[in-house]
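C-alpha cells as discussed.
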C-alpha cells in the first residue's frame, strides 16, 4: 500500500468499491493516465498475497467486520431499528456481499434511456454487462450443488406455475425460477479488487491509497480541483484533473453535501455552506423492501440437510424466483428467494425462510449529512411504503401469498410442517399487510441518491456521462446514479455502470 502520490494526477477516484475498483482498474489498464484510488478502508493487497482476512474471502459468511456502521429506522415511527450494512474495505460491498449476480430486465435500462439518458438503453449496456460478468467470473452452479431445501424451493415454485430456467439472468424473462449465478471461485468471494485491481497493481500508473477518508471536494469557479482527505490521521489536499466519486449510494451524496453541493436549506440545516445548488443530491434514495415467511421443517428435510451438509458446501442463498404480481404492468415486480441458516438453537438445526421483495419500487426516501463532520452519522431513510398508491406494500403482500403457496407445496412433499412467522393466525390480507408494515427491512440495495437525468430534470444530479450538472471536472460513478432502481441485486449493475462509463475517461 502506498501513501506517496504522483506529482500530477489525471483521474482521482474516491471509493474502491464495486464500481470504483472496476473503474480504476479499467482506466489504468487501457490508458497511461495517472490514476489515484482513495479508499476509506484497508487494502489487503492482491488475492494471491495471503493478506486477506478469512471472513472476507469466505463466500459462505456475511462478515460482521469492515462495516461503516450505518443504521436507521425502517420507516419514520417504526420501532425496527436496522443496521444498513456497507463495507469499508477495498472492493467495497463486493468484498462482503451475497455473491448473487443478476442484472434485472431490459425495461429497467430502456426506461433510463426514455427518461432522457442517451446511451443507457439495454442494447447500449449489454456489452458492458458481458465484460463485467467475465471479469467477476460469474458462473451458474450445477444442480448437484443445490441443497435439498433450495431444490425443494424451486420444485415448489414450478408447482405454483413459475417456469424453471437454466439462466435466470435472461433480461427478457418476466417469470422464472433458477439457480442464482454467482461470483464464487472455490468458495472465495471474487470481489472487484481481485477482478479489476490485481491485473494492474504493478502497472505503474495506478496508486491505491487505503485508509483515506475523503471529507469533501474543493470547488474553484465552477470546477472541482481537489479533495480533502484524512490519511493515516493527517489531513491532505489532493489536486487532480478530474475527480470521480464512487463512494456508493450513501457515501457519494454525503461527500457532495459536505462539499456544499445539494439543496441549500438542507445543507444549512447541517451546518454546511451551500456552494452549488443541486436539490436532487441525496433524494430519491431507493431500496427493495423485503420481508420473509419462516417455515417449520419436518424431520425428513432436517435429515436430508444433515446428510447433504456433512461433506458438501452449504450456502444460505442459492435460488431466485422473479415474477409478476397481479399489479404488474411491465417486466416483473417481485423477487422471492429460498434462504436457510444454520442455527443450532432452531428445532431442526436450521432456519428456513422465503423472503419476498418488491423490485419495481415506487417509494423513495433520502440520505442526508447531519453535520459537516465526515465522522458524523448520516440520516438515512429508504422511504419504504411511502408511494401514494401504496403499490410497494401491496406487491410485497402478493409476494408473501406466493411464498405461502410454495410453502404449501413443500408441506405436501413432506418437507415442511407449518409456518413459524407470521404464523397461521395471520390469515387475511389485512393481517399480512400489518405483518409487512411491522417487519419490512433493507434488502441491501440502496441506489438512486445521485440520479442521472437531463439538465431539465430538477432532481437530476449527473448527466449521461456521470458529470455533475453545472460543475466541471466532477463525476459520480456507482450505483447511486441509477435513475430508477433496477429489478436486480445491485452488485453486477454497479460494475456494469463502471464498465459503461470507463471509456469516456480514457
Ligand atoms: C450484506 C450485503 C449483501 C449484499 N448481497 C448482494 C448480492 O448477493 N448480490 C448483489 O448483486 N448485491 C448485493 N449487495 C449489494 C451490492 O453489493 C452493492 O449494491 C454494490 O456493491 C454497490 O456498489 P457501489 O460501487 O455503488 O458501492 P460500494 O461497493 O459500497 O463502494 C463504495 C466504496 O466507497 C468507499 N467510501 C465511501 N465513502 C468514502 C469516503 N468518504 N472516502 C473514501 N472512501 C469512501 C467505501 O468504503 C466503499 O469501499 C449486498 C450488499 C450488502 C451490504
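Sequence:
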Amino acid at each position: 500500500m502506498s501513501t506517496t502520490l504522483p506529482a500530477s494526477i489525471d483521474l482521482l477516484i474516491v471509493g474502491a468499491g464495486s464500481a470504483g475498483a472496476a473503474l480504476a482498474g479499467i482506466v489504468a489498464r487501457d490508458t497511461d493516465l495517472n490514476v489515484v484510488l482513495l479508499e476509506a478502508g484497508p487494502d489487503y493487497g492482491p488475492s494471491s498475497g495471503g493478506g486477506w482476512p478469512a471472513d472476507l474471502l469466505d463466500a459462505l459468511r456475511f462478515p460482521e467486520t469492515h462495516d461503516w456502521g450505518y443504521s436507521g429506522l425502517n420507516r419514520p415511527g417504526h420501532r425496527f431499528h436496522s443496521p444498513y450494512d456497507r463495507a469499508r474495505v477495498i472492493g467495497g460491498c463486493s468484498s462482503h456481499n451475497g455473491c448473487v449476480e443478476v442484472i434485472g430486465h431490459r425495461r429497467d435500462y430502456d426506461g433510463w434511456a426514455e427518461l432522457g439518458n442517451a446511451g443507457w438503453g439495454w442494447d447500449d449496456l449489454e456489452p458492458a454487462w458481458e465484460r463485467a460478468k467475465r471479469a467477476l467470473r460469474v458462473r451458474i452452479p450445477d444442480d448437484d450443488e443445490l441443497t435439498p431445501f433450495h431444490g425443494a424451493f424451486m420444485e415448489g415454485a414450478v408447482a405454483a406455475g413459475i417456469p424453471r430456467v437454466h439462466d435466470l439472468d435472461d433480461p427478457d424473462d418476466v417469470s422464472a425460477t433458477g439457480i442464482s449465478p454467482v461470483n464464487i471461485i472455490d468458495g472465495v468471494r471474487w470481489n472487484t479488487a481481485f477482478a479489476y485491481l490485481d491485473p494492474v497493481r504493478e502497472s505503474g500508473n495506478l496508486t491505491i491509497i487505503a485508509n483515506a477518508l475523503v471529507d469533501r471536494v474543493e470547488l474553484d469557479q465552477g470546477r472541482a480541483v481537489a479533495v480533502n482527505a484524512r490519511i493515516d490521521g493527517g489531513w491532505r489536499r489532493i489536486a487532480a484533473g478530474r475527480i470521480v466519486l464512487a463512494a456508493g449510494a450513501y457515501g457519494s451524496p454525503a461527500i457532495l453535501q459536505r462539499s456544499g453541493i445539494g439543496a441549500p436549506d438542507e445543507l444549512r440545516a447541517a451546518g454546511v455552506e451551500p456552494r452549488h445548488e443541486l436539490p436532487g443530491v441525496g433524494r430519491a434514495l431507493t431500496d427493495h423492501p423485503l420481508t420473509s415467511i419462516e417455515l417449520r421443517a419436518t424431520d425428513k428435510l432436517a435429515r436430508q440437510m444433515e446428510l447433504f451438509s456433512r461433506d458438501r458446501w452449504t450456502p444460505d442463498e442459492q435460488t431466485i424466483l422473479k415474477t409478476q404480481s397481479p399489479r404488474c404492468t411491465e417486466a416483473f415486480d417481485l423477487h422471492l428467494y429460498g434462504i436457510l441458516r444454520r442455527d443450532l438453537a432452531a428445532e431442526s438445526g436450521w432456519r428456513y425462510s422465503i423472503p419476498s421483495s418488491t423490485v419495481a419500487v415506487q417509494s423513495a426516501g433520502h440520505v442526508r449529512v447531519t453535520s459537516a463532520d465526515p465522522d458524523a452519522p448520516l440520516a438515512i431513510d429508504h422511504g419504504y411504503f411511502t408511494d401514494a398508491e401504496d403499490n410497494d406494500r401491496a406487491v410485497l403482500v402478493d409476494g408473501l401469498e406466493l411464498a405461502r403457496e410454495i410453502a404449501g407445496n413443500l408441506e405436501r412433499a413432506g418437507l415442511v410442517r407449518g409456518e413459524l412467522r407470521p404464523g397461521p393466525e395471520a390469515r387475511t390480507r389485512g393481517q399480512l399487510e400489518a405483518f409487512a408494515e411491522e417487519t419490512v427491512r433493507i434488502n441491501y440495495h440502496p441506489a438512486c441518491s445521485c440520479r442521472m437525468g437531463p439538465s431539465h430534470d430538477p432532481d437530476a444530479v449527473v448527466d449521461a456521462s456521470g458529470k455533475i450538472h453545472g460543475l466541471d471536472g466532477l463525476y459520480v460513478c456507482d450505483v447511486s446514479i441509477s435513475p430508477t432502481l433496477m429489478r436486480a441485486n445491485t452488485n453486477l449493475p454497479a460494475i456494469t455502470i463502471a464498465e459503461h462509463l470507463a471509456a469516456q475517461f480514457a
